[in-house]
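Quick start: read one record
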Amino acid sequence: MGAVDTVIPGYVDHLATNEDYTWETGTDIPNQLFAWKRFYLADGSVVACVGSMMSLWGGIIGNAVRTMRAQNNISNVLYMGKAGSLRTQDVQNQVLVTGE
């Protein structure tokens, strides 16, 4: 993916609708797990919307973000996804799920 300033991982298909930028994968079929679109902002910063062929959440998305940070020198992450809990005592919209 290369160096990017901000990564937006998760369900990003509805965000990355600009046809001027193509989806990149870095691998050939059938090994395509991730795809991304890079956008170049007026201030020179680069934003990448990163989608996955499977749903990533909790500790898995945390590991993916740490790996992207190490490999792509990212400084900001905006996660587009769902938060939830399997514990019945956690009330919707009142408990933040951290994945830990």
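The chain has a mean pLDDT of 79.
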